[in-house]
Specification:
With 289 residues, this protein is of the alpha+beta class. The protein has helices at 14-24, 43-46, 70-80, 91-106, 109-114, 130-150, 163-177, 184-195, 197-208, 269-277, 283-288; strands at 4-7, 31-34, 58-60, 66-67, 122-123, 222-223, 234-236, 255-259, 262-266. Helix 4 packs across helix 7. Keywords: Transferase. Pfam families: GST_N_2. InterPro entries: Glutathione-S-Trfase_C_sf, Glutathione_S-Trfase_N, Thioredoxin-like_sf.
Length: 289
């Protein structure tokens, strides 16, 4: 039996992003099932088969155990896959990473409520209440503390990428997406996430998979997404692809994209369209290119 990961909408489900990163960023294999946030059934109804979990993400382990809390998933992954190094090896860095993760799991309620994650849009300005300012000031403080002590040799909080960084990835999406005012250290940390390949792959899928959910929209002025500018690929109907097999599945090609006058093939529209959205996010495609 293989690991199974049940997640919500790529564009909007911040907790699902955390769970997905814990598997993908650390090379832990899992079959992914995507729930429909626009379905008539509630999320709770859709996950009834995975009791006692009641929301996403949900991990069904290789042994059939069910975990439905992100922090429990993180800790159990670290226990069952020690070679993946989900926590920092240094005891002091590990202690800080655990504390930061726990604070994210239970805190920053105003940031979550005022700025729901929406990977499909970015706003050039948004209102910042006093309570939201307090959340942002706390992030500036804890990020600055962690980076000063442990992050001098790379972009992440406590040395190498860890569970703590997976937990703060949706925070980076919110800060970027709502143009929230933060200090230079925090902005540099946000930029590290925006440039991270796994984060970019998640957003690329969110741009083309699932319905637009109006309850996440805000009536603020918009701007382009602040991450790296994607290569100018486009879907095409005709052409002679350079590859015979999809770079992701190995199946015969049926759908095409064009980039710099070159044609590449994929086994379905999802494989093609996620690549069109951000070609450089996908190592398998870049190997072809």
């Amino acid at each position: 039996m293989t690991n199974k990961l049940i997640i919500g909408d790529y564009a909007y489900s911040s907790w699902s992003l955390r769970g997905w990163l814990l598997f993908r960023r650390f090379g832990i294999p899992a079959e992914v099932t995507l729930l429909d946030f626009f379905a008539d059934e509630s999320v709770a109804e859709q996950v009834k088969a995975y009791a006692p979990a009641k929301t996403v993400p949900i991990w069904v382990t290789e042994d059939g155990d069910v975990l439905g809390e992100s922090i429990a998933i993180a800790e159990e992954l670290a226990t069952r896959y020690p070679a993946a190094n989900l926590w920092p090896a240094d005891p002091a860095a590990r202690a800080v990473a655990r504390a930061l993760t726990a604070e994210m799991h239970s805190g920053f309620g105003t940031l979550r409520n005022d700025c729901p994650m929406n990977m499909r849009v970015a706003y050039s300005e948004s209102p910042v209440s006093d309570d939201l300012k307090a959340d942002l000031a706390r992030l500036d403080f804890i990020f600055g503390m962690a980076r000063e002590k442990f992050g001098r040799n790379g972009p992440w909080l406590c040395g190498e990428y860890s569970i703590a960084d997976a937990f703060y990835a949706p925070v980076a999406a919110r800060i970027a997406g709502y143009s929230l005012p933060v200090n230079q250290v925090t902005q540099e940390y946000v930029n590290a996430h925006l440039n991270d390949g796994a984060f970019r792959r998640w957003r690329a899928m969110g741009m083309i998979k699932g319905a637009d959910l109006p309850w996440y929209a805000r009536d603020y002025p918009q701007k382009p997404w602040p991450g790296p500018t994607p290569l100018a690929a486009k879907a095409v109907d005709n052409g002679s692809p350079e590859n015979d097999a999809c770079p992701y599945s190995g199946l015969p090609v049926t759908h095409l994209l064009e980039l710099d006058g070159r044609i590449f093939g994929f086994c379905n529209d999802f494989c093609r369209d996620k690549t069109v959205t951000d070609p450089e996010a996908w190592p398998q495609f870049m190997a072809l290119l």
